[in-house]
Amino acid sequence: MNLNGKVWSAMAPKFAFFRLASVLVAGASGVLASAQDTLSLEEALKLARQNNGTIQAAALDVQAARSRVNQARAGFLPTVTPDAGYTYRNQEVQTGLRSTFKTDDFTTGIQANWRLLDAGQRQFGFLSSRASFRAQELNSLQTLRSTLVRVHEAYFEVLRSRKLRDVAQSTVKRAQTTLDQVVRRIQVRDLAEKEELQARADLLNAEVGLLNTENGVNNAEATLRALIAWPEDRPLPSLEDVSTPIAADPAPLGQALAAGLAERPDLQARALQIEATDFSFKRALRESGVTWTVDANYEKRFGPTVQQTTNLTALVSVPLYDGNRSKEAAREIRLSRDASERDLEQARRTASAEIESAYKAYTQAVRRLKASDLAFQAAKLNYEAADGSFRKGASDLLAVLTAQVSLVTAESNHIEAIYDTYVSEIRLRLATGRPIPGE
């Protein structure tokens, strides 16, 4: 595993979510059609990107943040407002003589307003919204990656639980075979009748173990179905298996820590949100002091009388007294910014702990994978030897049952080690800010 792989820059999430937004409008029918018999990990990830509500909400949050940037940018542009109106008026005046006045007018007009200059409030507002937008992109990317990691975990858990069920089924078959051999040998008086009790108890225990694995399969499948929004009226198909992972040692821990703290989208988003708060503070500080504006206005009315008005207004305002409201508003933003900075410091410490934990979990999983493979091969040879001896009458039942327990334990441990390695590797990717397969 190489932690020097390409990591997205802060601007890359923008293009990722452009693509994600286009995916949201597409249906998942094509993927479902191809997944009738077998569902691959790639197809499961694609379904999650299309249908998972958490990912969809993250993409919509990015669009909402982009709209806020557009609103702030619009503050630098003129506004043009045409209007049209109809007025009917009937007035009667009676002062000895009765007189009636009626008007029936249809008027149209157009207004144009443009703030040409100000003390910087618009600029600070725009810069704040733009930094918030970039932060939202990174937060949404982190949400996408976290959800895809959960899909990986759920997919591997289904494979794990199904294979453990296969092991339990094989155990039941072996236990049944052993019981049949014991019964035959008892019939020919080659074994004592009490040996049947042990063999039958072993079979019953194996059947209980099979029921437990069935429960594990059901829970794992339910989790995966929810994450990828699999239709409730369709059973989850067979999953395409993955090859045994290559047990490669990762890069040094120090390198992983440095990469993670620099590249994690959630940490970058927090830093950008502090930057956005800085601009908001500057705007509030500016509004609490002397401000000035230059506005241009144009209006033209059409009707019985045509009117045209042009204004150029320069205004300077000084907050003589507002009960200290504007200064306290600026102080509140500054304190909020300082709190966010402290929170970022703690988030970096937490991220360091997460990276170290994920790193050690992966390295331990790699060692377990190597050891469990050797143990499994040895247990198979041991069981085959014990079973062969028992069939020939050269060993007792206890030796076979002991070898069978060792085989089941070794095979289960090997299955656990395979998928624990996959899960720990994908979690290390997330902790160190690396792209997740499928994003």
Q: Could you walk me through the main structural features you see in this protein, from its secondary elements to its overall organization?
A:
The protein is of the alpha+beta class and 439 residues long. The protein has a single domain (12-79, 120-291, 325-431), classed as Outer membrane efflux proteins (OEP). The chain has ten helices and six strands. The strands form two sheets. Strands 2-3-5-6 form a four-stranded antiparallel sheet, with no helix packed on it. The chain is elongated and about 135 Å long. The chain starts with 11 loop residues before the first helix and ends in an 8-residue tail after the last helix.
Number of helices: 10
Helix content: 55-70%
Q: What class, by secondary structure content? A: alpha+beta
Across the major sheet, the strand order is: 2-3-5-6
CATH architecture descriptor name: Up-down Bundle
Question: Would you spell out the secondary-structure blueprint of this structure?
Answer:
Elements: H1 12-24, H2 29-34, E1 38-39, H3 41-51, H4 53-74, E2 79-95, E3 97-118, H5 121-187, H6 195-228, E4 238-239, H7 253-263, H8 265-287, E5 291-302, E6 307-317, H9 325-391, H10 397-431
Parallel strand pairs: 1-4
Antiparallel strand pairs: 2-3, 3-5, 5-6
Q: What is the gist of this entry?
A:
By secondary structure, the protein is α+β, with helices and mostly antiparallel strands.
